[in-house]
Amino acid sequence: MVGTPGRVLDLMRRKVLKLDCVEWLVLDEADEMLNMGFIDDIETILQTVPEQRHTVLFSATMPNDIKKIASFYMQEDYQHIQIKAKTMTASTVSQYYFETKLNRRFEVLCRILDSREMDNAIIFCKTKRSVDEVVAAMQQKHYNVEAMHGDLSQNQRMNTLKRFKKGQIQYLVATDVAARGIDVDNISHVINYELPQEEELYIHRIGRTGRANKKGKLIQLSHLVKRIS
């Protein structure tokens, strides 16, 4: 059976689905499943399936925090298999960075948006709080922008993504985990409002643009660090 955690739980509660004979448990997009509000549902399902089973997690990125959570649900002899990429970033993506003081970062972001032609863009933040703050500030300045993070319901995320694909939303501000569900080939720009903590997350962000042999641009906002001589 293939299903979302919510649908599987619904069938279990209605006693339509029994999992006592499950031999294989597979979590696709494992970091999303363990980090986007699904973890309680996953734990409930795991309490139902047999302990003696094969557990497989698939994920394009596996940050250290998620590895620790994942190991809790697996046997001690679990193996981490990583496929080495031929290239770290696409040759179709041009990368730029702007240095700015931390308290002027949002102002610099607005100047970039106003001075460059962008069909659309994903603006990445590290936390859900940062996403909400940036979206609120951008909406006050009348930018066509919406948020994408784990506190939004699945329906909200799907509706926002549908509008983004149709061009009804120009700017999407997102966390790394929420951006995993974004599969759009014509994103012209990716903007790192905040740097990720993991190298592979940075690479994953770049991969949102320059797809299907199209040109893309990555813009990094780096805050100035005061040097003590």
TrEMBL record:
Ranges for domain Helicase ATP-binding: 1-80
UniProt domain Helicase C-terminal: residue ranges: 105-229
MF term (GO), any: helicase activity
Entry-linked InterPro entries: DEAD/DEAH_box_helicase_dom (IPR011545), DEAD/DEAH_RhlB (IPR044742), DEAD_box_RNA_helicases (IPR050547), Helicase_ATP-bd (IPR014001), Helicase_C-like (IPR001650), P-loop_NTPase (IPR027417), RNA-helicase_DEAD-box_CS (IPR000629)
Keywords: ATP-binding, Helicase, Hydrolase, Nucleotide-binding
Name this polypeptide is given: DEAD/DEAH box helicase
Top-level taxonomy: Bacteria, Bacillati, Bacillota, Erysipelotrichia, Erysipelotrichales
